[in-house]
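Service request form, structural biology core

Requester: graduate student, group of Dr. S.
Request type: structure prediction, single chain
Budget code: on file
Notes: please return the result as structure tokens.

Sequence provided:
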Amino acid sequence: MSSLENPDCFSCDFKNHEVLHCANPETIEAINSTKAFQTFPKGSYLYRAGEEAPGFFFIKQGLVRSYREGSHGKQQTFHLRKSGDWIGFRESISGNPYFHHALAVENTEACFVEKAIIESLIQNDTQFQKDVFRQIAKEWKEAEEQIVSLGTKQVHEKLAEIILVLDDAQGSRNEIDLKVTRDVLASFIGTQTETLVRALSDLKARQFISVEKNRISILNREALCSLSHL
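Core staff response, request fulfilled:
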């Protein structure tokens, strides 16, 4: 991890982010002048579970995996956060330690925002306060949807969903450069690696996707959407 010169929030591609688009210029300037811009090489951690949460990260570029480890070392992936997403936000606002590990799946650039500045802005900008609450509600909804998905969807349905999520994270090109291992994909949908490989082969046989080494091509997006119930 390294720190670089801060990019300007006012010229950022994500200045119209759903939480920032209604914030007044003074609020954006406060974030702009206090944030820390950092880079994380592939395989490095933004933070680890159990560490104090002094703030959160806004991902400017890259892909970050959020996961936990069980008592026997088995990993469960919860989220893949892409450019434009926030990570560690809920813990920094609640005052709790980070609940997940946050691992850079590819070279990642992120802006770190201290919770003290956010707490101050919440008090002084009522519109920003509303948008922060919307962000928290969004994360709650995502957590609930994942619980429902893990509990009710079959492996093929969950695999179709994660393929679409990965494609969205890489710009909806219908071409996915698989930056995580099949073991990680299996942990994301809560199954064994062997079962995941069979499901990939099945979707390939149905001509929903094609698979070549570390690349998945979407051949029938409509079929994947229908299968995943997205």
